[in-house]
Amino acid sequence: SAVISQKPSRDICQRGTSLTIQCQVDSQVTMMFWYRQQPGQSLTLIATANQGSEATYESGFVIDKFPISRPNLTFSTLTVSNMSPEDSSIYLCSGGHSGLNEQFFGPGTRLTVL
Amino acid sequence: GESVGLHLPTLSVQEGDNSIINCAYSNSASDYFIWYKQESGKGPQFIIDIRSNMDKRQGQRVTVLLNKTVKHLSLQIAATQPGDSAVYFCAESDLVGRRALTFGSGTRLQVQP
Questions:
Q1: Given its phi and psi angles, is residue B106 left (phi above 0), alpha (psi -120 to 50 degrees) or beta?
Q2: Residues A19, A61: Cα–Cα separation, whole Å
């Protein structure tokens, strides 16, 4: 398994500002993903974080709004840019090892935008 | 309180009873399925998985059944305990492709003591 931590665990931000969320894995993982979970709903994939290259975004999510970095196999960041109240959500990262099926999730970052 | 699962369908069971949570999926190409448990304020926790070449897999107190013909997945929890109260999500993926998960809508399980 992999233990995944996220920082911050929660934040309250003002409209128009940006927040960077950090995801740290305790072991090298091949794959890292970022998901969003809006209040009362399921998880939606934002993007696949690729090591050393640009992230692969899902339909409806763009790099200008959600820039992602992954400088190595254990760390990734997601920035929520120019925030609006509609961005209020839980943001989760996950990781998995190639050759193994399971994906493990971090505890999530609860973002509230005023 | 946390907002995860507020608007989800709810299954209420008595402690000690068996629980069955159902999930329908849509992608015929999916070949890997996972059940996650999410407690308030936490990330999803892996419970059990199954590959498409199987139709049943058992773990400790949990069983997953897969019916590929009707694209249906179920999670059975034996002797349900109060600690099982949570929101349960099924997720699907493909083992060869991008490996990202597509989540189902979730079910809240409430265990009555």
A1: left
A2: 16
How many Cβ atoms from other residues are within 10 Å of residue B59's Cβ? 11
Distance from B14 to chain A by nearest Cα, in Å? 24
pLDDT 10s per residue in chain A (114 long)?
778 999 999 999 999 999 999 999 988 778 899 999 998 899 999 999 999 889 999 999 999 999 999 999 999 999 999 999 999 999 999 998 766 677 899 999 999 999
Would you call B82 helix, strand, or coil by DSSP?
helix
Question: Chain B residues with CB inside 8 Å of A39's CB?
Answer: 3-4, 6
Of A45, A104, A106, the CB nearest to B46: A104
CATH fold of B10-112 = Immunoglobulin-like (2.60.40)
As its CATH architecture, domain A18-95 has Sandwich (2.60)
What is d(CA A2, CA A32) in angstroms, rounded to the nearest whole number? 12
B32-38 and B10-14 as β-strands: parallel, antiparallel, unpaired? unpaired
In chain A, which residues have their Cβ closer than 8 Å to the Cβ of B102? 45
CA atoms of A21 and A108, how far apart (whole Å):
10
